[in-house]
Amino acid sequence: MSRGKPYFSGLTKTQLTQAIRDELKRFAFREEFESPLITGLIAEKHYYCSKRGIKPTRFRMLFRPGAAYDFEGFFPEHGWHKVSWNQCIRPRDEYDWIKMALRYAIKPIIAKYKALHPVCEKCGAHSEHVDHVAPEFDEIATQAISLLDEKLLEEAFARFNWWSEEQFSLPDSNPAVQYILAAHKTAELRAVCQPCHVKSSSERRYA
Predict the structure, then answer these.
(1) What is the model's pTM?
(2) 206: number of Cβ within 10 Å
(3) pLDDT tens, position by position, 80-121
(4) Domain end: 51, 67, 89, which one?
């Protein structure tokens, strides 16, 4: 028996996740389909749609290399748009959104470092990732986010346009962005391959 309180439609979060995964197995990529379960979930639990009384009427999955799929819903007044049923069950909080925006802010720095270090600095294989050695990214991000008061958080999310295909971001003038860019002038980075990246992440997690 699955533990936990009913979250939606009489199902716990675990049961709901499994029910949706089982339903999606019936459909091929690009095949359009209707799902009263997913439509209802988005209408009631999605952070944007639920507050504006909108919901998609049908769905499709699009293949994306390196990921399971992109999930899109058809909104009668807007057309097809990416929408996450999983985030309706396990929603991001404000910290997650800001942290994602901070990663986006340093993307050029990471890309430049990776281009200059095509070989894994631990084993010599082809590099695929860039690790934050010291300080770790989460540590820098936590310090950066601590600079944001309620007014700055409100301003950050007031800029957010869910219908836009552009990445959620913060302006360069935002104190958190300024802090994280400054921190990367002295942060120790390391280009690593996928196996070394996994090993390093595991070592930090259990350190």
Answers:
(1) 0.71
(2) 6
(3) 999 999 999 998 888 898 999 999 999 999 999 999 999 999
(4) 89
